[in-house]
Amino acid sequence: MSSKYLCLDCGEVYNSSGLNINELFDDIWCPKTNCCGNLIEVDELLIPTIKILNDKGYMTKFCCSGHYTGQHPRAYITFYEGIDIPSVPNGFKKEMFNNCICLETTLPLRKPTIGDFYKICDNAKTLLKWANKLPYYEEAWE
Questions:
Q1: pTM for this entry
Q2: Which own/partner contact pairs does 129-134 have at CB distance under 8 Å and 24+ positions apart?
């Protein structure tokens, strides 16, 4: 799936072309006038899920919906250090990765099939349904 950039403030989605991306710096700023929000790289299938999670206070760091043509087609969402999640979606597991929580699921390591593509799409739908049901971060820990 292709990567896009999502502004965490205004919700705009951008292609990498036309953005002034400096690999030396972590922060990429929204080019929209009067916004100046931080852009994060997001897999296209996960844009709605990542927007919901960040809007609810579950700040995400990295994500991938999986790659149909990849040798290791795993789907994951990594959250910033200190962010905990109250539940795990079906088919995913919660692991620690570089002091971050990582939700992950992996397809079998083999030549990809059309069924694998359907599984990637199903995983994205599972994550979206899960994110919609999560309480806001503050409410989850009261």
A1: 0.82
A2: 129/89, 130/87, 130/89, 130/90, 131/49, 131/52, 131/53, 131/56, 131/58, 132/52, 134/52, 134/53, 134/56, 134/58, 134/85, 134/86, 134/87
State residue 86 phi and psi, 5-degree precision. -80, -15
The token pair at 95 is: 């692991």
Q: Give the per-residue pLDDT at 81.
A: 82
How many Å is the maximal CA-CA distance in the chain?
Answer: 48
- Type of residue found at 17: S
Question: Which residues 6+ apart lie within 8 Å of 99 measured at CB?
Answer: 81
Residue 31 banded pLDDT, cuts 50, 70, 90: confident
Which amino acid, residue 68?
Y
Distance of alpha carbon 83 from alpha carbon 98, whole angstroms:
13
Tens-digit pLDDT profile for residues 36-78: 888 888 989 999 999 999 999 999 888 888 877 765 567 888 8
Q: What is the pLDDT of residue 130?
A: 95
Tell the burial category of 50 from Cβ atoms under 10 Å away from its Cβ (0-12, 13-18, 19+). buried
